[in-house]
Amino acid sequence: MPTLLILFGLRFYFYSNDHEPFHIHVESSDGIAKYGIENGEVLLIKNEGLKIKDLKLAESIIEENKEIFEKEWNRFFGKDA
């Protein structure tokens, strides 16, 4: 499972056998969450244990890095433009 970034105790990653649409998994010592990006907007899809402050931080980090994350997703799955 490719790790995109580790920052402030949060690990941002996707699974090597993941599926579309593009989404990011986030993991901390408290749990996991899943975020999608739809029409440029970061959306929380699922949360299993992350604290509110970590969810907000993760959303902010994804917002700032969404183009890089999506480019890595596309590169990994052979969808380079």
Reported for the largest beta sheet, the result is: 5 strands, antiparallel
H and E order: EEEEEH
Low-confidence stretches: none
Strand arrangement in the largest pleated sheet: 1-2-3-4-5
- Count of discrete structural domains: 1
Distance between the termini: 22 Å
The portion of residues forming beta strands comes to 35-45%
In helices, the fraction of residues equals 25-40%
Determine the number of helices (DSSP H or I, runs of at least 4 residues): 1
Number of strands: 5
Please identify the structural class as seen in this structure. alpha+beta
What's the gyration radius in Å? Answer: 12 Å
Overall geometry? globular
Mean pLDDT: 92
Please tell me about this protein's structure.
By secondary structure, the chain is an alpha+beta fold. It contains one helix and five strands; from the N terminus they run E-E-E-E-E-H. It has one domain. It has one helix at 52-76; strands at residues 3-7, 10-13, 23-28, 31-38, 41-48. Strands 1-2-3-4-5 form a five-stranded antiparallel β-sheet, covered by helices on one side. Strand 1 (3-7) and strand 2 (10-13) form a beta hairpin. The chain is globular. It starts with a strand and ends in a 5-residue tail after the last helix. The model has no long low-confidence stretch (mean pLDDT 92).
